[in-house]
Amino acid sequence: MDEHILTLICDPETHEALEFHPEALVNVRSGRRYLIREGIPDFIDIVSGRNKKYQELYDHIAWLYDPAENLYRWFKRRHDFRRDYIDELEVPSGARVLEVSVGTGANLPYFSSGVEFFGLDLSWGMLRRCRKNLHKWNRTAELFRGEGERLPFHANIFDVVFHVGGINFFNDKARAIQEMIRVAKPGTKIVIVDETEKVVKQLYERIPLLNKYFRKRIEAVADPRHLVPGNMREVKCKEFAGGRLYCVTFRKP
Fold first, then answer.
1. 55 phi and psi angles, rounded to 5 deg
2. What tens digit of pLDDT does each residue of 90-144 get?
3. How far apart are CA 20 and CA 74, in angstroms?
4. Are 82 and 111 in contact (CB under 8 A)?
5. pLDDT for residue 71
6. Of the four, 76, 118, 137, 159, which is 20 to 30 A from 5 by CA?
7. Which residues 6+ apart lie within 8 Å of 219 measured at CB?
8. Torsion of CA 102, 106, 107, 113, to 10 degrees
9. Beta-ladder partners of 236
10. Contact status, residue 95 vs residue 160, Cβ threshold 8 Å
11. Has residue 171 got a pLDDT over 60?
12. Cα separation of 35 and 20, whole Å?
C-alpha cells in the first residue's frame, strides 16, 4: 500500500493509526488486524441488522446493477439524473474525494482524472464490479470495504464527501452523517442522495427479485435532514428526477 494512503486511513473503531503488514493493516497499539482481500482493505468483521440485509441484496444483484440501470434509463427515456446531484458538489482542482457507498463506481466518470478518489462500500459484489469498471474506464480509485457508520479515515482530510443510495436503510443514519462530517475538511459541502418512498413503494416492492427486502417495513422512507447536527450550515433538501430522489446538502463549519 502506498505510504501516502496509509497516512489517511485509521482504525474505524478507535481512529488510531494503522501499519501495513503482509496481507493486513494492523493497529499496533491494540493488535487488531484488518485483512486486505483481493487488494481491498476490509474493515468489517461482522455485519448485522439492516446493513447485513442490504449487503446481501447488493451482493446478489451486483452483476446486474449497471445493465439494469442503463436499460431502465433508456426504456423510460430518462435524462442523466446523476448530473443533478454531481453539480451540487464543490470539487476544487486536485480534490480528495470520498464517496460513501460507492457501489459499481458509476459516479466516478463525472469527475476529472485529476481528483484523488476514495470509494467505500459494504458489498463485496459491488466493489468487485467497481474494480472491473475502473479497469474498463482506465481510471484509478482507492477502494475499501466498510460501513458508513464507521469510516476508516482520519478526521478533516476530504475536500469532497458525498453519498448516493443506501442511507435509507443504514443501521444508524445519524452516526453515518456524523462520520461524513468528521472526515470532511472544514468548509466542505456534504451531499447525501437516496431514493424517495415513491420509488420504494411503486417499484422495489413490486419487483420479484427485490420485494422481499422492502416489504413489511416499520416506517416509510424519509430524507434524513432532521439528523443533520444543528451546527451545520446551509442545510437544504430538494427532490429531483420526478420526485424519485431526494438530495440533502449542508456545509461543515
1. -60, -45
2. 999 999 999 999 999 999 999 999 999 999 999 999 999 999 999 999 999 999 9
3. 45
4. no
5. 66
6. 137
7. none
8. 100
9. 249
10. yes
11. yes
12. 10
- Residue 69 to residue 75: CA distance in whole angstroms: 10
Confirm if 211 and 204 have CB atoms less than 8 A apart.
yes
Q: Could you give phi then psi for residue 194, rounded to 5 degrees?
A: -160, 175
Tell me the three cell numbers of residue 129: 464490479
**Torsion 228-230-231-235 (CA) sign:** positive
Q: 76: pLDDT confidence band, cut at 50, 70 and 90?
A: low
Q: Give me the numbers of helices (H) and strands (E) for the chain, helices first please.
A: 6, 11
Nine cell digits for residue 105? 463506481
d(CA 82, CA 132): 20
Q: Which of 246, 227, 66, 233 is nearest to 148 (CA)?
A: 227
Q: Cell digits for 177? A: 452523517
What is the structure's pLDDT at 33?
Answer: 97
d(C-alpha 42, C-alpha 120), whole Å: 10
The secondary structure of 165-185 as a DSSP string is S-GGG-S-HHHHHHHHHHHBP
Given the C-alpha cell 466542505, which residue does it identify?
188
Question: What pLDDT shows up at residue 204?
Answer: 81
Cβ–Cβ contacts within 10 Å for residue 138, how many?
A: 7
pLDDT at 68 over 80: no
- 89/163 Cα distance (integer angstroms): 11
Which grid cell is 21? Answer: 503488514
CA distances from 115 to 31, 96, 110, 233, 252 (A): 33, 6, 11, 25, 21
Largest CA distance in the chain: 55
